[in-house]
Amino acid sequence: MKTDSGAEPHQKGTNARIGHMLAGVYIHVPFCQVRCSYCDFNTYAGIGDMIPAYAAAVCREIELAAQSASRAGLGPVQADSVYFGGGTPSLLPVRQVEAIVETLRRNLLVIPTAEITIEANPGTVDIDRLSGLRALGVNRLSFGVQSAQADDLRLLDRLHSFEQAVQAVAWARQAGFENINLDLIYGIMGQSLTSWRDSLRRALELNPEHLSLYALTVESETPMDAKVQSGELPMPDADLAADMYEWARDELQSAGYRHYEISNWARADPRDEGTTPAFACRHNLGTWRLQPYLGLGAGAHGFVPGWRYSNVRHPAEYVSRIHSGDARPFPFSAAVAESRAVDVNIERREMLLLGLRLVEEGVEASAFTQRFGVSLEAVFGEDLAELEGQGLLERAGESVRLTRKGHLLGNRVFLHFV
Ligand code: SF4
Question: How far is the CA of 378 from the centre of ligand 1 (A)?
């Protein structure tokens, strides 16, 4: 098979690293009850009746991926993390999550300690659903809380209240979850520093193991964008958002959280190892460390050494393509719509682009040399020196990482490696 890039995909013996691949698994669930005003993710409201056929297609895609890996002589892929993202994965009935997890376990080597995360909208769970998920092996929940203020939630078109989020976390604890992330958004139009502080402090009262804080961005062609264009809403205030980020960074440090990625914090724990907090999201860590992951489901992206690829976006086309019976060489399936060869020059840049997001760990010079057989200095020495001179990068032991100033100006750094 020729890909969009004109190159050949993986075949037996073409890449020795694949033979022992340890990969994450990302499963996209493209269903939501309504579209939130700011959202540009690949997700759809009003097609919930497709869920059973969609879950069956994901199971089939897992089988096809396992078969194509085996045909290529690559053996069973080991999975150390499984991440159900969306969309709203918590809309999947428990029996369908179970079918997908069981299919993964039958077809891949899902290691016993694998992190299995499901993203959940606080308004879509109850104690029975959460207990069912925990019983089948889901061990991490990520709740899209976004704000503790009713005005913010209304502006974002979120269907749930903060009180529902509080209840959802209580049910999750009751169900036995010991690893919970809360997503919050700052820089919302009309949000003051005081109301942001209140939102973060009320979220902290829930004692989450992990927090993801995202600055609101107005994505083109969203309902929010239309309101900004028409003057109904102002653009978010970037300076205020920066103040909110800096305040949150200090507040979370005082509250015992480790800032390990630009937008992510993990509660410090005695099991932390070096720059890797025990409660860091293992799935995303793998992505930032440029480790392979399989992307399954409509619009899902995947990466294996040498290739990035993505599936068709619409769930109906995805289901139809998966059932077409068309066999493709690993890591592709009939659902793949785009693929791009990742040559060594791109991969080196990606290691910097992704690794520098890890604000404690950064990019280790020895890891770079081990991966590429050439030193970080030899390839990027000039860029690194320039960014150090601007106070955006610093050395920490044998690693290079963002400075505190660089956390806010990451895009200026990343431009050097695009
Ligand atoms: S719940 Fe999440 S994925 Fe769904 S529309 Fe809202 S922001 Fe987008």
Answer: 43
Express each pLDDT in 170-200 by its tens digit: 999 999 999 999 999 999 999 999 999 999 9
Structural domains of the chain, with CATH: 17-288 (3.80.30.20), 345-417 (1.10.10.920)
Two structure tokens written together for 406: 């660089």
For the stretch 190-238, pLDDT in tens is 999 999 999 999 999 999 999 999 999 999 999 999 999 999 999 999 9
CA dist 226 and 19 (Å) reads 49
Share of the chain above pLDDT 70, in %: 95
Tokens coding 135: 């019983």
The candidate with the shortest Cα–Cα distance to 45, out of 30, 28, 33, is 33
The pLDDT mean for the chain works out to 93
Cβ neighbours of residue 418 closer than 8 Å, sequence gap 6 or more: 349, 353
Non-local (6+) Cβ contacts of 97 within 8 A are: 84, 89, 118, 133, 136, 138
Q: How many angstroms separate the alpha carbon of residue 281 from the centre of ligand 1?
A: 20
Test site for ligand 1: of 32, 90, 184, most ligand atoms within 8 A of the Cβ: 32
Find the angle CA(404)-CA(409)-CA(414) to the nearest 5 degrees: 115
Q: Distance, CA 13 to ligand 1 centroid (Å)?
A: 41
Which residue is closest in CA terms to ligand 1's atom 6? Answer: 36
Distance from the alpha carbon of residue 156 to the mean position of ligand 1, in angstroms:
10
